[in-house]
Amino acid sequence: MVKRGRIVAFFLLLLIFAGTIGTTIQGITKDIRLGLDLQGGFEILYEVTPIDEDQEIDRDALEATVETIYRRVDSLGISETSVNIEGEDRIRVQLAGIEDQNKARELIGTSARLSFRTVDDDEIRINDEPLSLEMDEEDDNNEPDTENGEIFNGSNLVEGSAQQEFHPDTKAPIVTLKVKDAKEFQSVTKKVSQLGDDPSTPYSENSMVIWMDFGEEDSFIADFNNPEEQGYISAPRVSEPLLTKEVMITGDFTVDGAQELANILNAGSLPVDMKELYSTSVGAQFGEQALNKTIIAGAIGIALVFVYMLFYYRLPGVVAVITLSTYIFLILLVFELMNGVLTLPGIAALVLGVGMAVDANIITYERIKEEMKAGKSTLSAFKAGNSRSLATILDANITTMLAAIVLFIFGTSSVKGFATMLIISILVSFLTAVYGSRLMLGLLVKSRALNKKPGFFGVKPSQVKDIEKGEEVEAKVFGRSFDFVKHRKKFFGISIALILSGAIALGAMGLNLGIDFTSGSRVQVLADEPVTEETLKEEFEEIGYTPKTIVISGDDDEIGVARFTSVLSKSEIADIKGHFNELYGSNPSVSTVSSIVGEELVKNAVYAVAIASIGIIIYVTIRFEIYFALTAIVALLHDAFFIIALFSLTQLEFDITIIAAILTIVGYSVNDTIVTFDRIRENLKLKKKVKTFSELAEIVNKSLMETLARSLNTVLTVVFAALMLLLFGATAITNFSFGLVVGLIAGTYSSLFIAAQLWLVWRGSMLKRKPIEYKEKKQTGGPQV
Fold it and tell me: Where is the Protein export membrane protein SecD/SecF C-terminal domain (predicted)?
C-alpha cells in the first residue's frame, strides 16, 4: 500500500526549498562582496622598512601604519577597503570598485613627511644663529641636535589643520596649515629671509622650499631647471620674518589637487617607509566583462550537469538537481554570512564544486543500482546503497579538503578565495548531497510508490537478477566487460612514453613562467576593436615602453597582454593607464611582482604540493594501508606532471593559479583513486583470503569494472563545468581552466589504469611470502597482511 503522506512531505519540502531560494537569492547575491577582478580595483603588498637605523618595526608600528592608511582611504569615500598585516613586516592593501586607481595608489603610498628646506636642499633648524648655505655634514641623518636646534618640519604643524582654500588675491587654489608655535615659524622665516637674493640666479635664494617625502636624489635646482620633473610642492620667497600661525602653500594646484594634498597631510605621515613587492590593478570594464562571461559559463556548465543527471539517473537525478540547487544557494548564503569576497577563481570553485558535489550522488546512486540489479527490493537497495557509500564519500572528500586547506595556507589572495570556496563547497555538499539526497529520495522510496519499478532508477528489468536462483551481477559498461588488468603493461608503457616525452619537452622548451614566478610586470589592455601585436607594440613604444612579449586573446581579438621583465613604477603605471584609457576608453589591468615575492611563490608552490602529498599519504595509510597510499601518490604525481608537461608543449603562461589547478587535481585524483581502492578493500573482505596473484588480479579487475561507471560519470560532470569555464569563461581563468580539464582526464586515467594496477603488481609480488588475509575487527581497518 502506497504511503501518500511521504509523497506529500516530499513535495512540501520541495516547495519550501523553492520558496526560500526564490524569495531570498536575489538579496543574498546582491550583498556578496565582489573581488577586485570582478568589479575593478587594486591590491598592493608592501614591505615595511624603518625610516632610520634606530627604528624598530614591531606590531605597534605596523598597526599605526594600518590606521594611517585607513584614514587616507576614508578621504576617498571607498567602502570596500581591506588593509591587513601579513607576517612581521608586510601590509596588504585591497581597494575594490575604485574609479581613480592612480589617485588612490598615490594617496596610500606617499609617506607624507613634510619638510621645509633652502634652495640648496638644507633642512631649516629652529635657532637664533644665521643659516649657512653650506651643508652641515653632521645633519645628514636629518636628526635634531642640541647645538644647532631642532629641525622645522611637519611635526611642528597642528595635526588635521590642512585645508583647501583660495588665495585672497589671485583666487587660485591653495593649501593652508597652522603651526604649533608662531615664534618658531618667525625664527625659521627670519633665517630664510637673510639668505639674500642673487640676481644672477633665476630663482630667489631666500625661498623656503616645501617638499613632500624628500629623497637623496631630489634637488631643488635640478627640478627648477626641469619643471616637468618638479618634485617639490612650492617654493615661496620669504623677504621678511613672519610672526603667524598660518602657513600658506601655493603652487600650480587644481582644486582637486589642493584637496588631495590637504587630505594626505591631515591623515598624517606614515611612521615607516613602504616598498611595493607586489601589485595588481583591474580596470572596471575588465571586471564587468569577467563577471558576466564567467557567470554565463558557469550557468551553462551547471545546466549540463543537471541535464546529464536527469538523463542518466532518472528519478534520483531529479533529487540530485533539487539538492544541487539547494547546495548552490547554501554556498552563496554561507559566503555572504562570512562576509567573504567573491573572486573570479571563487566562481570557478563554485562551478567545479557542483561537479564535485554531484560525485556523492553518483557514488550513492551507482550503489543503489547495483543492489537493485542484484535482485533486492527498492527499499533494501536504497538502504544498502546508502550504507555502503558513506565511508567512500567521506574518504574521498577528506583528501580533497586536505588539498584545499594547503591551498589556503600557501596561496595568494585570489588563490585563498578559490580555496575558501572549495572548502565551503566540500562541507556544504556533505550536508546536501549526502543527507539532503537521502532525505528526499528516502521519502519517495519509503512511500512504496517505487516498489518493483527499477526503471525510475535507470535500471532495466532485464538487468535485475534473481537472488533465489543464485544469479550474480556481472559488472559491465556499455553492455561489455573489460579486462583492464590483462593490459596493465600497455598502460604502464603508455604512461612511461608520455612522461619521457613530457620530460624532453620540459628540458627543451621549459615553462612559459608568468611574472608570479619570474618577477616583472603584466599589462592587460581591453580595446574597443580588434587589435594586433604590432598595433599594441607601436602604442607602447609611442609612450616609451618596449614589452618583452605581447599576446592577443579574447573572442574578437580585443584583449592584448604585454609582459615586461622590469617592475613598472607608480608613475610608469599611471602613464600606461592614461594612454590606453584615452585610446580605448578603459583602464588596462596591471600586475607587478618583485623578485622577492616571485622567489617566495616558487618556494610556497613546492611546499604546498609536498605538504598535500604527505598529508594524503598519512590519511590513506591510516584508512587503508601504506601500499595504497604510496601508489595513490604515484598516481597524483603522474597527473600533476601531465599538466606541467602540456603547459610546456603549448607554452601557455604558467602562473600561480595553475598551482591552484594542480592542487585541486591532486585532491580530485586521490578522490577518484580512493573510490577504487575502497571497492578493492571491500571485495578483499568478501574474499577474506587471497593466496595467488591471479586471485588478486581478478579482485582488482572486478573492482575497476564496478567503479568504472562512477569514475566516468564523475569525470564527465566535472569536465562539463571546467570545459564551459575554458570555452566561455573570462580570459583571466582560461589557462587555469585548461589545467583543470587536462588534470581531470589524466586523473581518471591514472585511477583506472595506473594506481590500482600498480598496487596489484606491488602487492601481488608479496603474496608468496604471506597471503592477504582480512580479519574481522571491531574498528574499521584495511586488509591485514
Answer: 273-438, 586-763
